[in-house]
Amino acid sequence: MIAPLLALLDRVPLKFILLSPQCQLPTGVALAAPRRAKLLDLAEARRVALIELDPEYDYHFGPGLPPRPLAAEDSSGQVIYIGSLSRVLAPGLHSAYLTAPGLLVDRLTKIRQRMDWQGDRVLDWALSELFLDGDFDRHLRKLRKAGLERRDALVDSLGEFCGDSLDVHPSQVGMGLWVRGKGRLEDPNRFESWIKLCRNLGLKLRQGSAFEHEGRSKAATRMAFTAFEPEELRAAAQRMGQALSRI
Predict the structure, then answer these.
(1) How many domains, in total, are found in the chain?
(2) pTM
(3) Residue 146 sits in which domain range?
(4) CB 28 within 8 A of CB 220
(5) How confident is the model at residue 116 (pLDDT cuts 50, 70, 90)?
(6) How does pLDDT run across 22-40, given as a tens digit for each residue?
(7) Could you identify which of 27, 43, 149, 194 might form a hypothetical disulfide with 178, taking C-beta atoms 3.0 to 4.6 angstroms apart as the criterion?
């Protein structure tokens, strides 16, 4: 990853690099510690900003604490960290937050004030009460417990109904699973045919080409699970198995 970035920086004067090191979309993979360190060194040496998007940080299902954001390891002021409360409280909330070096925060604050001087004071007060009263921490514990149950329900159901044709690696963080085709679904064209059959049965799954920069066919897709009950996920996996029988 570092070598291609260096080559690109030699050709193009990049102003920033956008990344999600805790949970890459769509695979859910976290950036390894050695690569994180090299990326920070690169950003400092080339004076390139790193914009760290971390909307799914709170969906952590592994043992212990979730990995620290890249911004927590930044000692040179190169990382701009952006998070969101919409995915942990309500999709329509549209409330996000940003951390950055002080001078940049001052400039961004002035821009924000020119766009909307007042903001939503009632919403801001309500959110602050959630944090101050400890309700937000209790909510996160329930959220992670429900998310883990739903993730495991989808993993188990896919293994039961599609185990011979899908390769599933449960991620320790994030709101979805990265699923690859195996066996007869290892062929991208056949995988896409299966996706279309699933759609005919009422399932909304994206073609693998949606996750390719160049739009090439890919025998893989991302399956979200946090918005559904375990029983719904099992029923969906059963329909996926029915679609397999028609290929």
Answers:
(1) 2
(2) 0.87
(3) 138-244
(4) no
(5) confident
(6) 998 899 888 988 999 999 9
(7) 27
